[in-house]
């Protein structure tokens, strides 16, 4: 039986892309993407939960992410899940990343005549909360 490891995420960047280069010179870009679910609970109250996704992009696509993306921008990411472990203060921590195959920039172009805000159908001024940084190895 075949197996499938595929992830699709559409969300907003929680911080500016972080780029570095491997020893072989390959660009590696890390993204923190927020997705949110909204619902009404049994008491009729609006609820919202935000999930944070760690995304790793390689090569020319990584350089384009660093060049054209910034905090708050909306993106479509398609890739696969990959889990890694690392030691911090004597404890083993595990991290699951999305290794991106496709990154598409959404939300329209920046319009300098309108103070740099996004044009297109995206919600203006949305700033997702920053992801927790204490368990990130980078």
CATH architecture call: Beta Barrel
**Spatial separation of the terminal alpha carbons:** 36 Å
Spatial strand sequence of the major β-sheet: 1-3-4-6-5
* Poorly predicted regions: 111-129
- The CATH superfamily turns out to be Nucleic acid-binding proteins
Tally of separate domains: 1
Structure description:
The chain is mainly beta and 138 residues long. It has a single domain, classed as Nucleic acid-binding proteins (OB fold (Dihydrolipoamide Acetyltransferase, E2P)). It is built from 1 helix and 6 strands, in the order ββββαββ. A 5-stranded mixed barrel has the order 1-3-4-6-5. The longest helix has 10 residues. The N and C termini lie far apart (36 Å).
In short:
The chain has 138 residues and is mainly β.
Descriptive keywords:
five-stranded mixed beta barrel; 6 strands; 138 residues; 1 helix; OB fold (Dihydrolipoamide Acetyltransferase, E2P); mainly beta; globular
SSE diagram, text form:
Layout: E1 7-13, E2 18-21, E3 27-40, E4 46-58, H1 59-68, E5 74-88, E6 91-105
Parallel strand pairs: 4-6
Antiparallel strand pairs: 1-3, 1-5, 2-3, 3-4, 5-6
């Amino acid at each position: 039986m075949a197996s499938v490891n595929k992830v699709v995420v559409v969300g907003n960047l929680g911080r500016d892309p972080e780029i570095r280069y491997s020893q072989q010179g390959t660009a590696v870009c890390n993204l923190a993407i927020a997705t949110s679910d909204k619902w009404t609970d049994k008491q009729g109250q609006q609820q919202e939960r935000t999930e944070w996704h760690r995304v790793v992009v390689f090569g020319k696509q990584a350089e384009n992410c660093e060049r054209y993306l910034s905090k708050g921008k909306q993106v479509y990411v398609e890739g696969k899940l990959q889990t890694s472990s690392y030691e911090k203060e004597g404890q083993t921590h595990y991290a699951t990343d999305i290794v991106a195959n496709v990154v598409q920039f959404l939300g329209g172009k920046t319009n300098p005549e309108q103070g740099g805000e996004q044009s297109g159908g995206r919600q203006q001024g949305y700033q997702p909360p920053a992801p927790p940084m204490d368990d990130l190895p980078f």
